[in-house]
Design goal:
Number of strands: 6
Strand order of the largest sheet: 1-2-4-3
Radius of gyration: 24 Å
Oligomer: single chain
Distance between the termini: 14 Å
Structural class: mainly alpha
Largest sheet: 4 strands, antiparallel
């Protein structure tokens, strides 16, 4: 996407949502601009739905999502939100009448927004680490055997892959601080506290620790997700409190010092253990789902996952997978369901492209197929093919269900979060070669069933004006 086009999309988007002064928070994921606004009445829904160059619009709870595609980062940069953040009105300057009522729905939306905004920016490091570990396992002595465990290359790549997960609290300390408008360096500092070598060594020895006379619950925070996000969220309020009341001349020294002195006992005594418990509950819930519904539970997740992508709820699922992977070393529920969904969406796009008669639709289908299979971007297929024509959506759901059901019956496990394209299969590489084989077969079933159903059910073509 050219800079000129990105700038036009950015300007029209800002105009449609009521301008920069109407933005409470803004960030982007892999394909979408995401906004929490101060006053919904200022939004021009018709204008935001028909911005040239965008792939669609979705509202999830209080969050407005403008679907851009792979160039979302370029468009976000053209909004220059951080550059002018100081001149924008603060939340406290908005009228009291514009404040939204706190309901179960808004609370849930805010929690989801916080998790997505904290985790999504860290995904490149997580996926990179996962791919390196899978690459190492593939070339290591347990499979191909090109690398010995004693070789320097193996040892270096091994600790490089481990570092991506071990230092997750530090990465998320930075990203969550950015999300909660706290000092990112303090966020990283608190993440470092959780995995400080001396602290970890003391816990390993089983020695009792206390701070200010309060006992510290022994928890291993390496590779954890929820604890640091919870800690930084609370820290953002503590930091703002000291920033408000400490004189300007002393802020540089005393705001961070007082914030950390307050947060250390809160983090190690209460918030960290609480976050760890919440993470364990998420992992236990997924395992419980598998125990109760078995392979059919995995199939059902696969069948509805495309709907979760449409609503933007799939990022919460990714967070749950990350928690399970770091807690157990593998995931046998959600990521097992997601893999055939990725392949089924690509199959729907390819079948649509080959069956379509209009050149514009064939072009849309082929480009969507490539974007999904290689780029891991599902929105063009979802909003250009599956939703407008419905039957491809149904075909994809059935295909994904069949593929996931097979993988569930074969007890397939995912060992790394490796992306949302064809390389998702790398996450199933393991010493047990049957695991990857069955994952490939399951995804193959999803592809074939979806392709055949789209071809047999057909669709009534219409012009794709929104993509021209």
């Amino acid at each position: 996407m050219e800079e000129k086009q990105a700038k036009q999309i950015a300007e029209q988007t800002l105009e449609a949502i009521g301008g920069k002064e109407n933005i409470q928070s803004a960030f982007h994921c892999v394909t979408r601009l995401r906004f929490i606004l101060k006053d919904d009445s200022k939004v021009d829904l018709e204008k935001i739905k028909h911005i040239p160059g965008t792939l669609g619009f979705q509202k999830s709870g209080d969050q407005y999502q403008v679907i851009i595609g792979p160039n979302v980062g370029t468009v976000f940069e053209q909004m220059h939100l951080e550059e002018e953040g100081k001149s924008s009105p603060t939340i406290s300057e908005t009228k009291p009448s514009l404040k939204k009522r706190m309901t179960v729905k808004t609370v849930g939306s805010n929690i989801l927004d916080a998790l997505v905004g904290s985790i999504t920016p860290a995904l490149p490091a997580i996926i990179c680490a996962g791919m390196i570990k899978m690459f190492l396992m593939l070339l290591g002595p347990s499979l191909i055997g090109l690398l010995s465990e004693k070789s320097g290359t193996y040892q270096v790549l091994n600790f490089v892959g481990d570092a991506g997960f071990y230092f997750l609290p530090v990465f998320l300390g930075y990203t969550s601080a950015k999300k909660f408008k706290a000092n990112p360096i303090l966020g990283m500092f608190m993440g470092s506290v959780l995995i400080a070598p001396a602290f970890v060594e003391t816990l390993t020895k089983g020695a009792a620790l206390s701070v200010y006379g309060l006992p510290i619950t022994p928890v291993n925070y390496s590779s954890t997700v929820i604890p640091i996000i919870l800690i930084v969220w609370v820290m953002s309020y503590v930091e703002k409190f000291f920033d408000t009341y400490i004189p300007t001349s002393f802020k540089m020294i005393f705001v961070p010092v007082f914030t950390v002195l307050i947060m250390v006992p809160m983090a190690l005594v209460a918030l960290g253990p609480l976050g760890s418990i919440l993470g364990n509950y998420i992992s236990s819930f997924l395992l419980w789902t598998h125990q109760v519904f078995g392979p059919f539970g995995i199939g059902l997740i696969a069948a509805v996952f495309a709907l979760l992508i449409v609503t933007g709820m799939h990022h919460a699922i990714n967070m749950a997978v990350l928690v399970t992977l770091t807690a157990n070393g593998y995931d046998e529920v959600v990521f097992v369901a997601v893999a055939p969904v990725v392949i089924a969406i690509a199959a729907a796009a390819l079948a649509f492209a080959l069956k379509a008669k209009q050149p514009a639709n064939r072009s849309l289908g082929f480009s969507s197929f490539v974007l999904q299979l290689i780029g891991g971007v599902a929105e063009p297929t979802l909003y250009g093919v599956m939703i407008p024509y419905v039957k491809p959506f149904v075909a994809q759901a059935i295909g994904a269900f069949c593929g996931a059901l097979y993988m569930g019956f074969m007890h397939v496990k995912a060992y790394a979060l490796t992306g949302s394209n064809i390389f998702i299969l790398a996450g199933f590489i393991h010493e047990d070669s049957a695991n990857l084989t069955n994952a490939v077969i399951g995804c193959g079933i999803a592809f074939i069933v979806t392709f055949v159903l789209v071809w047999v059910l057909g669709f009534k073509e219409k012009e794709q004006e929104i993509f021209e």
